[in-house]
Write a structure and sequence with these properties.
This protein is an all-alpha fold. 74% of the residues lie in helices and 0% in strands. It has nine helices and no strands. The relative contact order is 0.12.
């Protein structure tokens, strides 16, 4: 849930990302997003005059950048440190929400678009995944991994973690994330060791 002291616009973005991560975008109204963010409905339309899609798109970008910021900081210590920070972030979100929240980027990605057009929130989700993969690819390459293998491994990391988050929520257990973490660490070590 949004922090009570956060500025209204940021409060709405945090609240929207959290609500989307819990219920998905299609099952959430703009009124519910404002209520969840503890913000007046009028401020929602003031900051996001284009409505729910604009708020959802910006919430996905906000969440994506928050994760990217953590990755940038932790990947300086190497790809395994970055992976561990990525996992710790999601573990905290899932556990702190009692298995009710996951990743808002994934939530937007798996919903059927309301029209044949690609909604802006879905396009934003694709860009967020690209950024996360790019950061991981760069870190793996800096550690000496083959660039082609690094790109494939980065995609595998993001896909595995996102899938494990969904499994954790369904099983109400963090075991899937722990299992995936061990396998990914082994793959990262192998990719970096082979380059030495």
């Amino acid at each position: 849930m949004a922090k009570p002291g956060a500025p209204s616009r940021e409060r709405l973005l945090i609240g929207a990302a959290d609500m989307i991560s819990r219920r998905g975008l299609n099952a959430t109204s703009i009124r519910e997003l404002a209520k969840h963010a503890q913000a007046p409905l009028g401020s929602t339309y003031h900051f996001f005059p284009e409505g729910k899609q604009q708020l959802a798109t910006e919430a996905v970008n906000y969440a994506g950048e928050a994760v990217a910021r953590i990755l940038r900081e932790e990947l300086d210590a190497g790809p395994i440190a970055g992976l561990r920070a990525f996992l710790a972030l999601w573990r905290g979100i899932v556990v702190d929400s009692d298995f009710r929240a996951g990743c808002p980027v994934l939530a937007v990605s798996v919903e059927e678009p309301p029209t044949d057009e690609i909604p802006p929130a879905l396009a934003a989700a694709a860009e967020v995944f690209e950024v996360w993969e790019g950061l991981l690819t760069e870190a793996l390459t800096r550690q000496g991994a083959d660039p082609d293998r690094a790109a494939g491994l980065a995609a595998l990391i993001v896909a595995s973690v996102e899938g494990a988050i969904a499994m954790c929520r369904a099983k109400r257990s963090m075991q899937p994330l722990g299992r995936v973490a061990r396998q990914l660490e082994t793959l990262i070590a192998d990719a970096v060791d082979r380059s030495a």
